[in-house]
Structures are given as structure tokens and as C-alpha cells.
Specification:
The structure holds 2 protein chains of 2 kinds. Among the domains of chain A are: 198 residues, Orthogonal Bundle (MetI-like fold); 188 residues, Orthogonal Bundle (MetI-like fold). Chain A contains 23 helices and 2 strands. A two-stranded antiparallel sheet of chain A has the order 1-2. In chain A, a hairpin with a 3-residue loop joins strand 1 and strand 2. Chain A is globular and about 85 Å long. Chain B is an alpha+beta fold. In chain B, helix 3 packs across helix 4 and helix 4 crosses helix 5. Chain B is globular and about 80 Å long. Chain B contains 10 helices and 18 strands. Classes of the chains: A mainly alpha, B alpha+beta. Chains A and B meet through helix 20 and helix 21 of A and strand 2, strand 4, helix 2, helix 3 and helix 5 of B.
Chain lengths: 561, 333
């Protein structure tokens, strides 16, 4: 080891090459603008809701709201309902999700494309489409009742459970597939040579290696379910959960303080889930080896045939629900008069199609704003000292722990005020766009950071050494590599923003609404066929945008060395 | 111009990466920073380039203090191991890049680019993209790009490490030619001693953030001053003082004053002479045939020594030999 030198050679401050003025300015913008945005549109509203939850009816600070909630039996039931529903959904999604992920990743399953399409469908639509479709099939006036005459009723726990499973399953499959991809064929070769049976190999290698994936998928499903509003609103019936409870407290009873408290309660399980999941994810990546040989799918009839039936059964069910909604939108009176018609698309109530155009505008705004701010942040962070970069990173991934409903409600508290500039935003589509962006900030940010890692550091340094400033670094070393990532972040934000319901529900006004709300309003008013038609329009728009994304992505891929 | 480094000090957290480095680079010098990975050679190069800050000492180019000057204003050329060409620009555009940043006239740029591509022997590839070139070709473009701006100093960060062995040897010669012809002061980082020996005017051998020895390639090989240099540059037999005193007393006459364990004698394998002799005290342990030479392990006077003989030799393990020690150098142990 180097012996430490005598400290008489004291050194003045570090000799750090000073950036040129324009570069410093550009760097300040890169870091400053996105962080100010986070402070104004994420941290500030959340602080407001926290304070609101502590503000009692007479305006003083205290725990009165919390005590009132805790002593209210209805809240206890609602919380229990939410937890039971989420646990049940999690359990089912893990079992089915693992089966599907395993079938896709490790077996010679036929018809993979079909399964992939089925799994992509729920992400294209607002969460209430599952509820709507299940009602069309299993509701009091559904297909099954018409065919069998049985007194089926999908309203309540079982219907909600089913629709939540359909909604959360694709996300579970995505995570579990990634976990199963993360193995090494040599483990299996070694086990095979030592004489382990297929079952033993599955129990000793496959399952233990996927345990962090299972943990992570479990938490994601739990979080998605406990914070979901759309399905609960459409199919929950009298089965009340926390998400609908906030809405009832705030919208129905104008009880903002109580709404804030329920919002804070809703923050607890998701924050816990997110923290544990992060820790698990880090441990998972610690174990991965660089030179792993991927496990090739193999075929084993005794396993694959039953598994294939199960997987395609799930895929069929998911698809059937969505297709039923689309089909029902084109018939006169589902399920009694199946004559084709376009009359359901003639929507005049609840603002007609205007909310769809508003949503498009909002989504484009959210995606554009989002992609620029996230890019600036990811670019600037690489040039920050590590300690500051860590803080910026933490702030950027924080939004993932905040359910949409809580964020939306906090916007009401923060921006529904007349006495300052921020209040001017309330009631405008810009605020809805910002809310949607910050709702999905973390996922977009993580994608952007991953993309930024692909930019070769040496290329950026080459630009500097050749005399280029920060703007040349951006133009010549970063843009050519980040294009594809930026496009995918843009469309991620766009698609999420097109279908999200939970956050925006508090931000709409009589004159300004969004598409997912229209579906809910139409359904509430009993115009189920029109609700189906409107859902179909949303799905069509999102699908079209996905096609556009594919085309742009193909163009954006530059030659690499 | 003359680059002067004085007492340069750099830490990463608690780790001392560069411990008061002092070094001069003359106007036409080709300097190699040689050392094992983690010795600080790349850190030093990046500090000179302005890509890393440092904690103490001074860095001057002529009369100009570089310590606060950003990389973009230093006007140095740099070539990385990873080529680092712009993937979306042609070869000609890559070479022209620095000139464009300096807003030179476009016809002047074109003439200059043509001349540079001629020099690196790639005039026919001007319109290709980097991914259409081989590794060696890409590295030539990177060198042309670095030279285009008439750099005050050329910095090469392991430029040959990613290339095939044969291309590497070929490129070595070309780098040397270009540097000689243009007379640009050049600093190259490498962990390959052969590369350093064949290219450099001066080798700076580094270890654990310190300079072990600065000298010509011949100096470093024939007169290593420390055990580390003797070991890292070429093969050597390092013999303790008391053993030398007993076995080969005449070597003691050149030994500097000092305690027994302060110095060791470095004998290069080719300076160890063997003669077949049934009564000899040396025993052959092992012969490794390497093509142009044979490397032999011998047990002699309670030590295992390494010798090298040109071509193939007929020794078998167990053969007896007489061993004599040729000239050597005393190194600090």
C-alpha cells in the first residue's frame, strides 16, 4: 500500500477545470428546470395533502382527522376489504403469472404471439374496461345469464377480483419473464449431470432463482390493485375499497380533510411495497453474472400440454373480455339484440367526443414535456458530483410510490386556490398533463437513465478534447444514441396518459374532462353500450399511436459501431 | 511546447491515486506511461487531458497554467482504446469535426482532411461510416481526427489494446512514424511492456500511484532501479545480497552501500550462462519451448533460476549443468 504522505504538503482547493460560462448555464438549466418541476408539481402537492390531513375542521393542526378515521367502523371495513382484495389478486396473479412466464420463457409453447397480444391488451385501455367487459359477460344482464338463465351477478368482490386479476396479470408476467430470463444454462447442465430430475431442477434452481422476481411481481400487483380506481368504480358495487372511499369522501361528501387522511393511509402500503421491492431488485442484480449462458426453451409434453391449455385459457379470457367490449359497442342492445349498428358511437352526453380530443392534447403535452424534462435531468445528472446526483435520483424515483388518486387529490389541495399564480393552472389541461407526467415520472426516468448509460463516455470526452462545448456534446455524442430511448419514453408517457383515470378524476371540471372519465360517466348513467364505444375509441387511438411508435423507432435506429 | 507536471496529487475518496507525480514532457518527446492496471497511469492521462480534476500540485504547458482550463480549451488530441468515432458521421466528417468546431473555412477543412487521410493511408474510405471499417481502420481515423486540429499534445489511452496482435504491431510502427514526422509531443498509456519498449523515447514506469523509474527503454531494461521495474519490464532473476555474496562475490563490487535486504541483484534470463557438464551443480527442472527461444528453469545453489537460450536446446529435465552469472543490475528491493 501507498504510505500516506506527510500532511505538511497542504493543498489548496482542488484544481478543477472550470466549465465555460455557456456550459455552466446549460448545465444549470439541465438540472434546475426538472428539479424545480419535481418540487412544484410533486413535492409541494404532497406536502399540502399531508398538512391538510392534519388540519382539523376549525383550522388548527392536530390528529383529529386520523382519530376520527380510526374510530370509524366503515373505514376499518373498507381497509380490510382493500387488503383482502389485493392479497387475493396478488396470490392469483403470482400463480397464473409464473405459469405464463414460465411457458413463454422456458417451454416450446405454440401460439406465443397470441398470448403476447392478449397480455398487451389490458395496457392499451383504461382499467375500467375489464370491469365493463366482465359485466357484459357475467353481469345480471350478461351473456352467461342470457344463455343459461342462471342468476349470476358480477357486482361485488368476485367480479372485482376477476377484473383486477385481468388488469394486473400482464404486469406480473412481464416482471417474472425478466426474472426467468436471468438464469444460467450451466446450473441446469450441472444438475442434469448430477442426476437431478426435472422436478428437482425446477424446485432447486428455477424457483429459488426467480424468488426476487416473484417478490417484485407480488408487490407490483398488490400496489396496482390497492390503488386502482377504475375497476372498483365500475364493478365494485357495494364492496367498498379505499380508492372509492377517497372519491366518496371528497366528491360526494366534500370532506376534504378525511379524503386527505385516506390518501395518506393509501400511501403507506405502496411506499412499503416500493421500498422492499427496490431493496430486492438491488440484491437480484448483485447476483447476476456477466457471462451467463441463457437457458434455451425445451419441450416436455407431460408438462407443456397442460401448461399450454392453462396459458391459452388465461389469454383467451383476457382477450374475450376486451373483444366483448368492442363487439358490444357495435350491437343494438347487448346481449338481447345483436344487430350491428353504429348508433352507440353517436355520443352526445357527457360532452360527446370532446374529452377524447382533450385527452389526446393532454397526453401529447405530458409526453412532450416529460421527454424533454427527463432527458435534461438524465443528461445533467451524469455531470453532477455523485452525492448530489444521488439526491436527484431519489427525488426522481419517489413518484412511483404515490398512487394516482393521492397525487390527484393533492393537486386539488395545492392548486385549487385562487390567490397565487399556481392557482391559475387549475381547471386547465396543462395541469392534467403535468399530473399525468409526474404520476409516471419514475418509470420514464428509469428508462431514460438506462438509455443514457448506452451513450459511450469516451465519445463525449472526445468532443470535449476536440474543443466542443456542452451543446456539441449533446448534439454529436448524446442525441445519436438516445433517440430510440426518447421515443419509447415519449410513447410510454403518451399511452399511460391516454388511459389513466385515478389521478385525473379530481382535476376535471364541468367544462374540461378526459376520455377515461367519459367511459365512467356513461357507465354510471347506464349507457353501457356507449361506454363500450368510447372505450373502443380510446383503444383505437392508443393502438394507432403504438404503430406510429414502431415506425419511428425503426427510423430512429442509427448505425452503431 | 514543454509540459511540466509538479507534485501532482489526486485522491478518489480515501484512495491515493496519484502521489505527488513530477514529470516533464519535451517538445518532441514520445512518452509511455507503463504500469499494471490501477497504477494511476490512466488517471494521470485524464488529468492532463482536463477530463478529471486533481487535488494538488501544478500542471503547466509552457507558461500557461492548465489547472483551471477546461478540456475543450486545451487543444489536445486524444485517442481512446474504444475508437469513439461518431457513429452517425462519415470518416471524413469525423476527421473534420474538430476543425468544424473551430469554424475553419470549408475548403481548408477539405484539404486538411484529405491530407490526414492520406497520412493514415485511408484516402479511399472517406465516405464510409465507422461501422463499415475494421478495428485498425477505425483507430487510424481516430488518430487522424485527433491530429486534425494540430494538437499541442497528443494523448493516447491504450490505443492498441483492442486490436488483433498482428494489426497492433503494424499500427505501432505507424504511430511512431506519424509522431516522428509531425514532431508532436505524445503521451501514451499502456500496460504492454513490449509496446512501451518499442515506441517510447522515455518510459515512465508507474506503480501504486507513484513513479518507479523514468528512463529510456534501454535504461529500464538494462538498469532497472527497483525490484518492481525489474519484475514488470521483462523477466528477471532477483537474487538476495547474502546469496550473491556467497555464490558470486565479484558482483558485490558494484553493489551500493546498504543493508542486506535493501538491494537485490537483477540478472536477466539471457545473462545466465549454462554449460552441459555431468559434474555441474545446476539441475535442469523444466524446458519450455517458445519458438524463437527456450525458457529453462534450473535449480542451483538452493534457488530456482530462469534462463533463456535462443532457438531450441537439447536439455532434458534432470540434466546437470554448470551455471555462471553474467552482468546484472542492483535494484532497490
Amino acid at each position: 500500500m501507498t504510505t500516506i504522505v506527510d500532511s505538511t504538503t497542504t493543498f489548496a482547493r482542488p484544481r478543477r477545470p472550470r466549465l465555460a460560462l455557456t456550459d455552466r448555464l446549460l448545465l444549470a438549466i439541465c438540472i434546475g428546470v426538472p428539479l424545480i418541476g419535481l418540487a412544484l408539481f410533486f413535492i409541494y402537492p404532497l406536502t399540502t395533502i399531508a398538512i391538510k390531513s392534519l388540519t382539523t375542521a376549525d383550522g388548527s393542526l392536530g390528529l383529529a382527522n386520523y382519530l376520527a378515521i380510526l374510530s370509524s367502523p366503515s373505514i376499518a371495513t373498507t381497509t380490510l376489504n382493500s387488503v383482502v382484495l389485493s392479497l387475493a389478486t396478488t396470490l392469483i396473479c403470482l400463480v397464473l403469472g409464473f405459469a405464463i412466464a414460465f411457458a413463454l420463457q422456458r417451454t416450446a409453447l405454440r401460439g406465443r404471439g397470441l398470448v403476447a397480444v392478449a397480455l398487451a391488451l389490458p395496457m392499451l385501455a383504461p382499467s375500467l374496461v375489464q370491469g365493463l367487459g366482465i359485466l357484459f359477460i357475467l353481469g345480471r344482464n350478461g351473456l352467461v345469464h342470457k344463455w343459461t338463465g342462471l342468476p349470476v351477478d358480477a357486482y361485488g368482490f368476485s367480479g372485482l377480483l376477476l377484473s383486477d386479476v385481468f388488469y394486473a396479470l400482464p404486469q406480473a408476467v412481464l416482471i417474472l419473464q425478466a426474472a426467468l430470463r436471468h438464469s444460467d444454462a450451466r446450473y441446469y447442465d450441472a444438475a442434469e449431470i448430477m442426476g437431478a430430475s426435472r422436478l428437482r431442477q425446477f424446485l432447486d434452481i428455477t424457483l429459488p432463482n426467480a424468488r426476487f422476481g416473484l417478490l417484485s411481481a407480488g408487490f407490483v400487483v398488490f400496489t396496482v390493485t390497492i390503488t386502482d380506481f377504475g375497476n372498483a368504480a365500475v364493478i365494485g358495487g357495494n364492496f367498498r375499497v379505499l380508492a372509492t372511499e377517497i372519491y366518496a369522501q371528497v366528491s360526494g361528501q366534500m370532506n376534504f380533510g378525511m379524503g386527505a387522511v385516506v390518501g395518506m393511509l393509501l400511501l403507506l402500503p405502496t411506499v412499503a411495497a416500493v421500498v422492499i421491492e427496490r431493496v430486492a431488485a438491488q440484491r437480484q442484480f448483485g447476483g447476476g453474472s456477466e457471462s451467463a449462458i441463457p437457458v434455451e426453451p425445451d419441450s416436455l409434453p407431460i408438462r407443456d400440454i397442460p401448461l399450454g391449455f392453462a396459458v391459452h385459457g388465461c389469454a383467451f379470457a383476457i382477450m374475450a373480455v376486451v373483444i366483448t367490449v368492442i363487439f358490444a359497442s357495435f350491437v343494438k342492445l347487448w346481449p338481447y339484440n345483436l344487430e350491428m349498428t353504429l348508433k352507440n358511437y353517436d355520443i352526445t352526453v357527457a360532452g360527446g367526443y370532446r374529452p377524447l380530443w382533450t385527452t389526446l392534447e393532454v397526453s401529447l403535452g405530458a409526453a412532450l414535456c416529460g421527454v424533454i424534462l427527463l432527458f435534461l435531468l438524465a443528461f445533467g445528472m451524469k455531470r453532477l458530483p455523485p452525492k448530489l446526483a444521488k439526491i436527484a435520483y431519489l427525488a426522481a424515483v419517489l413518484p412511483v410510490g404515490v398512487p394516482g388518486m393521492v397525487l390527484g387529490l393533492s393537486y386539488v389541495f395545492a392548486f385549487n386556490i385562487g390567490d397565487n399564480l399556481l392557482g391559475l393552472l387549475y381547471g386547465g389541461s396543462l395541469l392534467i398533463a403535468l399530473c399525468n407526467f409526474y404520476h409516471y415520472h419514475s418509470q420514464g426516468f428509469l428508462t431514460m437513465i438506462t438509455g443514457m448509460r448506452a451513450v459511450p463516455a469516451a465519445l463525449e470526452e472526445a468532443v470535449s478534447c476536440l474543443g466542443g462545448g456542452l451543446s456539441s456534446v449533446l448534439k454529436d455524442a448524446v442525441f445519436p444514441f438516445i433517440g430510440a430511448t426518447a421515443v419509447s419514453v415519449f410513447f410510454f408517457l403518451f399511452m399511460r396518459s391516454m388511459v389513466t383515470l385515478s389521478a385525473v378524476i379530481f382535476l376535471i371540471t364541468p367544462s374540461l374532462s378526459v376520455a377515461a372519465i367519459s367511459v365512467m360517466r356513461l357507465d354510471e348513467a347506464g349507457f353501457v353500450s356507449q361506454a363500450a364505444a368510447f372505450s373502443t375509441c380510446i383503444m383505437g387511438t392508443v393502438l394507432a399511436s403504438m404503430v406510429v411508435m414502431r415506425l419511428i423507432l425503426q427510423r430512429a435506429s442509427v448505425p452503431r459501431n | 511546447m514543454h509540459l511540466q507536471i509538479r507534485h501532482l496529487y489526486k485522491t478518489f475518496d480515501e484512495f491515493v491515486a496519484l502521489d505527488r507525480i513530477s514529470l516533464d514532457v519535451g517538445a518532441h518527446d514520445f512518452i509511455c506511461l507503463l504500469g499494471p492496471s490501477g497504477c494511476g497511469k490512466t488517471t494521470l492521462l485524464r488529468i492532463i487531458a482536463g477530463l478529471l480534476p486533481f487535488d494538488g500540485g501544478s500542471l503547466m504547458l509552457g507558461d500557461v497554467d492548465l489547472s483551471a482550463m477546461p478540456a475543450r480549451e486545451r487543444g489536445f488530441g486524444i485517442v481512446f482504446q474504444s475508437y469513439s468515432l461518431f457513429p452517425n458521421m462519415t470518416v471524413a466528417e469525423n476527421v473534420a469535426y474538430g476543425l468544424k468546431i473551430r469554424k475553419e473555412a470549408s475548403d481548408a477543412i477539405q484539404t486538411r482532411v484529405e491530407a490526414l487521410l492520406d497520412m493514415v493511408k485511408l484516402p479511399h474510405l472517406a465516405d464510409r461510416y465507422p461501422h463499415q471499417l475494421s478495428g485498425g481502420q477505425q483507430q487510424r481515423v481516430a488518430i487522424a481526427r485527433a491530429l486534425a486540429v494540430d494538437p499541442a499534445l497528443l494523448l493516447l489511452d491504450e490505443p492498441l489494446s483492442a486490436l488483433d496482435a498482428r494489426v497492433r504491431v503494424e499500427m505501432r510502427g505507424e504511430i511512431r512514424d506519424v509522431q516522428r514526422r509531425l514532431g508532436i509531443p505524445t503521451i501514451m498509456v499502456t500496460h504492454d511492456q513490449e509496446e512501451a519498449l518499442s515506441l517510447a523515447d522515455t518510459i515512465v514506469c508507474m506503480n501504486q500511484g507513484r513513479i518507479e523509474q523514468i528512463g529510456t527503454p534501454k535504461d529500464l531494461y538494462l538498469r532497472p532501479r527497483t525490484r518492481f521495474v525489474a519484475d514488470f519490464v521483462g523477466q528477471s532473476n532477483l537474487l538476495p545480497s547474502d546469496w550473491v555474496r556467497a555464490v558470486s562475490p565479484h558482483h558485490m563490487t558494484t553493489r551500493p552501500e546498504g543493508k542486506d535486504d535493501a538491494f537485490a541483484l537483477c540478472i536477466r534470463p539471457e545473462s545466465l550462462h549454462l554449460i552441459s557438464d555431468a559434474n555441474g551443480e545446476g539441475r535442469i527442472l523444466d524446458c519450455g519451448f517458445l519458438g524463437n527461444l527456450t525458457r529453462i528453469q534450473i535449480a542451483w545453489k538452493d534457488r530456482t533460476l530462469t534462463a533463456e537460450i535462443p532457438g531450441f536446446c537439447g536439455y532434458m529435465a534432470g540434466d546437470a549443468v554448470t551455471v555462471s552469472l553474467g552482468s546484472g543490475a542492483w535494484v532497490r528491493a
